[in-house]
Amino acid sequence: MHIGDRMSSKPFIKDRKAISQSAWLVIVAVLLAGVIGLSWYFQTAQQAEQRVLTISTTTSLYDTGLLENAIAPAFKEKTGIELHFIPKGTGAAIQDAMNGAADAIIVHARSKELDFMEKGYGVNRKVIAYNFFAIVGPEDDPAGIRGLSPVEALKKIVEEGRKGNAIWVSRDDGSGTNTKEIALWKKAGFNYSEIKNEPWFRCTGTGMGKTLNYCNNVRAYTLSDMGTYLKYRKDGLIDLDVLVDEGEELINIYSIIVVNPEKYNKDFDGAMQLAKWLVSEEGQKIIGEYGVEEYGRPLFYPAVEVLEKKSGDIYNWIVKYGFIEDNGVWSECPEKYRYKANIEFFEVKI
Amino acid sequence: MAWEYVLEGIKQAIHLIITANPDVIEITLRSIRVSGMATLMAALWSFPIGIAIGMYNFRGKNILKGFFNGLLGIPTVVLGLILYLLLVPSGPLGFLRLIYTEMGISLGQSLLITPIMISFIANSIEVVEKDIRELAITLGAGKLEASLAVMREAISGILLSVIASFNRAIAELGIAIMIGGNIFVKGSALNTRVLTTAMQMYTARGEIDMALALGIILLSIVFAVSTISNIIQSRLT
To answer: Residue A79's domain spans which residues?
Structure first.
């Protein structure tokens, strides 16, 4: 037997050799621990050296590349602060901040933002940008909703859906887009949690891009933000058409909320610096110009110039769908949610 | 259509590798570093535990083995979620400041692969343990030396456990995305984007060719590691 041969060719003299071998094992283990400890230490040192803001945000902003490719480098150049974006969908992004993992959030669902501030986690909300949602669907438009108002279109989809002629796809993931969709269903007179159980109503529970892909495959309708839709359409991944994109209900308003320093010891000053920079001329310009070259139109519109003008349809819509009412005053951030803010807030009495 | 994607992906992958795209190199190196570190960390505690289970008989041994065997297939999202809740600043281990860091991913992956390492090591030792030990002792070996003889015979299985662990770590997504967060800032030392998180991001953004290219790189690493281990193994036996 070959094992036996091998054994007998190496006579076992004493245990000392074995002891020295196991000493080697211990030394190797200690070295391993040393390597791990050192790299841990090294990383902590790096963390301390570089000022970093962690921003939890929505996938619809992140997936267009605006945050990482345009905002982060410009802000770092200006202030030396590094921005780390964690894309999660509005609901999860807010949860992230409530767990203390973020310095600020950039999201798009007013009701959830208000809840976040009411619970004392967020302060100093600033509206930074807007664009529009659209109902997109197959080119041949089996439900015949092209050009209708959003509410009429949804009613028509329900009608045709129940006849088996149309399919609606919902993200159903607690995201800002999903929040808007639920509000639209309510406005059209349907209860989202009931209607979503009907056979023509399908839920993906995932991000915008994957939902658009799914819609494209099953020739269905869905609510999409413009940024993601344009990107997918241009890249030839989908051939869905925009069928309904007019109507104030479809406005999509993005804002930044800073984490309350009384809740978590985060970099409040840095986060305020970011909020200020985003609404500055420089920040707004970057937002407005992103994607123009590639898609022929901006993916996001800067909000500050509209708010400064204080008139026009879009101004009224931002106030109606993006501002928060408190004691008869509509503002970006009611006074009770402001904290050591050396920044102006837009407000209007109605 | 699907084949076009694959061809385009392969073309893109070759292009990215030939032109030494700095972002891709950075992400690839980080993947190897993070998962390599995870393998080292796991080895630190899995070797003693695995060897102990394989070598010695003690009360509760089967329960312990069953425990680690059961954890072999733990879904990465479950582990990722638990770790996320532990590591966020409001969690019990928040003070470690590991959330959204490379070291955090390494820690998570090391826990993920611990059961793999322990089970593989314990098994490969158990298979040879009895015969070799008896033989060694018959030939005049001391207790400790007999144990080392067992280890020598089990070495290829132990090597395999390390390789399998590394491959599992580098190919997982759930922990890397939940603990790492897929952070990427050009020129930053604190990025956490690895191959799998980059792939899922490019897929979500509709840049399928880029995602495929990274997938091909990931597969190449896994195959390369496996091949190298095969060569070492064949020399050992």
So the answer is: 51-132+253-349
Give me the DSSP letters along B155-169.
HHHHHHHHHHHHHHH
* Predicted TM-score (pTM) of this structure: 0.84
* Record: contact B189-A35, CB cut-off 8 A: no
Q: What is the per-residue pLDDT for A86?
A: 93
CATH classification at residue A89: 3.40.190.10
Cβ contacts (< 8 Å) between A44 and chain B: which residues?
97
- Label residues A211-236 b or e (16+ Cβ within 10 Å = b): bbbbbbeeebbbbbbbbbbbbbbeee
Let me know whether A25 and A173 are in one domain.
no
* Rounded CA separation A75/A233 (Å): 30
Number of Cβ pairs closer than 8 Å across A and B? 120
Q: A157-167 burial, b for 16+ CB within 10 Å, e for fewer?
A: bbebbeeeebb
Q: What is the pLDDT of residues A179-213, one digit of tens each?
A: 999 999 999 999 999 999 999 999 998 888 889 99
Kindly state whether residues A329 and A306 are assigned to the same domain.
yes
Q: Is position A44 within any domain?
A: no
Q: Which residues of A23-54 are buried (b: 16+ CB within 10 A; e: fewer)?
A: eeeeeeeeeeeeebeebbeebeeeeeeeebbb
Predicted ipTM?
Answer: 0.80
Angle, CA A303 vertex, CA A58 and CA A99 arms, to 5°? 30
For residues A149 and A18, state if they share a domain: no
